[in-house]
Amino acid sequence: KNEVEQSPQNLTAQEGEFITINCSYSVGISALHWLQQHPGGGIVSLFMLSSGKKKHGRLIATINIQEKHSSLHITASHPRDSAVYICATNFGNEKLTFGTGTRLTIIP
Amino acid sequence: DAGVTQSPTHLIKTRGQHVTLRCSPISGHKSVSWYQQVLGQGPQFIFQYYEKEERGRGNFPDRFSARQFPNYSSELNVNALLLGDSALYLCASSFRPDYGYTFGSGTRLTVV
């Protein structure tokens, strides 16, 4: 069965802390997406990656294809980073399968 | 360059009514997908269109239909609205189905 799992489900941290969110998937994929959703808001695409590492500002995404695992890191976290972070992949078919999401709260 | 544009942003409808949601993809993107996100849950796949043809359909009743126009914009139609159709409806566009996706901000539909 094609599944995407995320951990932790909820994460609360102090402003400035280094954040790591993990994503694992059940079978081989060609690409994985990291998405951000603020409360009541739409989804913003952060990264799509198929190998290695990508960096955008304070956000870093890594993927290990052999281990079927990806991580999203946030450096110098800020309260505005508070959101739900979701990983997703399409397992080579037409629809994205989403992880359950990680609710991140950054306390000032 | 404009992102994925969805309209309207918010909508309130009465049970039994019909609704049409619209999506304009990023220029050059030929694939559009629709997702439903009920409050507190993850997005669920409804449809995908590529080059104006339906490429995939999720587990939704026939009350849900969609189409893609020659300019690659898309409409999602829902007939005989139920309270349970209240959700955020998301559109995502891509150059091809196996490329990265860009999401619109969504249309929040409330059925009363």
Structural class of chain B: mainly beta
List how many beta strands of chain A DSSP finds: 11
Query: For the largest interface in this structure, which chains are involved and how many residues does each contribute?
Result: A-B, 22 and 23 residues
State the low-pLDDT regions of chain B, or none: none
Main sheet properties of chain A: 6 strands, mixed
The helicity of chain A comes to under 10%
- The assigned structural class of chain A equals mainly beta
Mean pLDDT of chain A: 91
Distance between the terminal alpha carbons of chain B, to the nearest Å? 37 Å
Strand content of chain B: over 45%
Mean pLDDT of chain B equals: 93
Low-confidence runs of at least 5 consecutive residues of chain A:
none
- Our Rg estimate of chain B from Cα atoms comes to 13 Å
What does this 3D model show about the protein?
The complex is a heterodimer of chains A (108) and B (112). Chain A is mostly beta strands. Chain A has strands at 4-7, 10-14, 19-25, 32-37, 43-49, 52-56, 59-64, 69-74, 83-89, 97-98, 102-107. Chain A is built from no helices and eleven strands. In chain A, strand 6 (52-56) and strand 7 form a beta hairpin. The radius of gyration of chain A is 13 Å and the shape is globular. The model of chain A has no long low-confidence stretch (mean pLDDT 91). In chain B, 0% of the residues lie in helices and 51% in strands. Chain B has strands at residues 5-7, 10-13, 19-24, 31-37, 44-50, 53-57, 64-68, 74-78, 87-94, 102-103, 107-111. In chain B, strands 2, 4, 5, 6, 9, 10 and 11 form a seven-stranded mixed beta sheet that branches. A four-stranded antiparallel beta sheet of chain B has the order 1-3-8-7, with no helix packed on it. The model of chain B has no long low-confidence stretch (mean pLDDT 93). The interface between A and B is medium-sized, with 22 and 23 residues.
